Amino acid sequence: MSKESVKRYHVPKKQFTIMILPHGGRGGTQLTISYLSLSLVCIIWFGITASAAYFISERVRVDETQKANTELKNKVTSFSKKMHDALELITATAELNTHLRGMLSLGNKSKIIEYSAAGGPSKLEDLQLSKILLETSPMESEELLEMNEKEMLAESWQAKLDFREISQYLNEKRILARSTPAIWPTMGRVTSPFGLRSSPFTGGSQFHSGIDIANLQDTPLRATADGRVVFAGWAGNLGKTVVVSHRLGYTTYYGHCDNVFVKQHDKVERGQIIANIGCTGRATGYHVHYEIKRYGKALNPTYFVNRSF
């Protein structure tokens, strides 16, 4: 026999006999195993294999669970930071919102300025949320994170809407304020007030529709509000005159000018130099005739200078 041979013999007594013979055919080894013993060996082997498979699968499951928990903790940490940042933003927005509404005395005057306080989670609620997330399953935690994130986004959007409404309202107020005459057209001495006066030419009583401000020749004249030039030229007794139209029906007049630096249709801003003081037209000296009208009715200019809006 060129190799070791292994022979198995069936024994009627339900046994297996295994013989191992060397190459020379002498001194072989015989092993007899019963069916019962073989069955026990198989059962033990299967049990060990099944146990090993179970423990391996459990280990994999534990590793996956730990990995999921680590990811969830990272998400909780990240979300907590987002909540903290969003809370600071919303709190600052709410405080500024309240401050602006109080400062402007908005109250309940219109729908756009109704009070709408922006809420937000407290630090305690933030900690409670983190604890709940850690104590719940990953799926439930994901739902909680998504729910709270949606709530925070809703709060943030509401805050943005409040800001937009207030910003729009303030912009409208700013435009209206900038369009209302509110500064002196020039520095100088008021030589003739608004209302009834004695005419410097006839001595008789006459209504003066503006005020006269005297100063040196070529003293700059400034627009008293934002608007558009509707006239720049000679206007009879007023001489060289600039007329500026503003919002809300206001119109301002600057008469007896010397040099005029604007032309019809020009846009002007409050404080912009539009002309110099002169003595053109019917005048007794260098001054500007400054007049304010609203929807054609003359108003006392001294009521508007340095006015607060």
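Above is the first protein from milestone M3; the second protein from the same milestone is given next.
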Amino acid sequence: MLGRHLGAIHKRRMVAQSEHSTRGLSGMFRALSHRNFRLFWTGAFLSNTGTWMQAVAQGLLVYHLTSSPFWLGLDAFMSTAPGLVLTLLAGVYADLVDRRRLLLFTQIGAGLSALTLAVLVLTGVVQVWMILVLSFITGCCFAIAGPSYQAITIDLVEREDLANAIALNSTQFQFSRVVGPALAGVAIKFFGIAGCFFANTISFIAVIVSLMMVRFDQKKTFPPAHSVKDKQAVWQDLIEGLRYVRRRRRVFMLLMIAGMTSLFGAPYLSMIPVYAKDVFHMDESGNSLLMGVSGAGAFIGALVLAYLGNFKYKGWSVLSGAFVFALCLIGFAYSTRLIVSLAFIFGMGFAIVCCVAVINTLLQQLVTDEMRGRVMSMFILSFIGTMPIGSLIAGAAAERFGAPRTLATGGLIIAAFVAIVALRNKRLRELH
């Protein structure tokens, strides 16, 4: 009897564990049960895949034309510099205008920019200054679209699924970092560099179609409460948003962590062609490999976050993610063995997602609805808007001191900053 009783208990435990595992796996993708989010997610994934194909090809093209790390940094600067000026204003408009129309307008503009570059390369007339101009135009489109892209997520799912939706958005973006470089390597081999730019042009059609198919709640995407007078008071709204963040220390510190990590860490992406060609002596496939492994690490990190859902200790995830990213950056900077470098760059991708995606979730949870667009624009400015400054500085520094010393110094600065923040901000550490 005792044996039969123990057997029954064991069976119930096994069934319970099986059900828990099934719920965990299904819950991992629960935001995709919302039709609107599913459409938007699919279109964004296809578009981001094309964008990463272009990123790989464009880096190779610039380095082929100039053989200079400085020009790589300058190209990265031109593509992200518009964010320094436009992102905050775009955040205000994200709270005032129809976000779908704003996104459609910017995606069409970015697609035309990619098409122009494809034609220039195909006809053999491309020069580096042309690439810089088109990078700037594309950067303007992305800077205007960014806050609306972030703020619109909550319009596509129920509030309880927001954390999962943000994690899945990060998953599709990071998975595109794996697929995009891999496809870029194939496209360059069979169709040349122009093939990547044509592919990116086509990919923008996917997100445009998905935006047209989504059924938005007009009360959310175009709040009727805002009058024409409100729209004319953009600067007052912007100042109000800045004051809102300044009064909320946890929000401010989260933005600071995102900014410091991007400013001193993100330039490693623009230095990848240098490592592929000069350190590992590889052809175009080496560039795709390094970019792809970085994306693979980020993709796995995003999957882990999606599986965990609304987990505890988000504050610790942010801090530890940023710190591990810094350590991996230092290791990658000085590594001369390919397999070791791949391990470090995988760790960088994993850690940065565990930091930045969780910052995104925390900000969405901490701010009020009427401030969401403005705060998310500050998040984009802090993480993406600082990239041009970091890339420009890193490019110039790498030209003089070498890429390894430049990246390692950035890693040391990030690690020191995160350690100080962790020790002095208990409320940030305890964020759930």
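Note on the second protein: The two ends are 46 Å apart (CA to CA).
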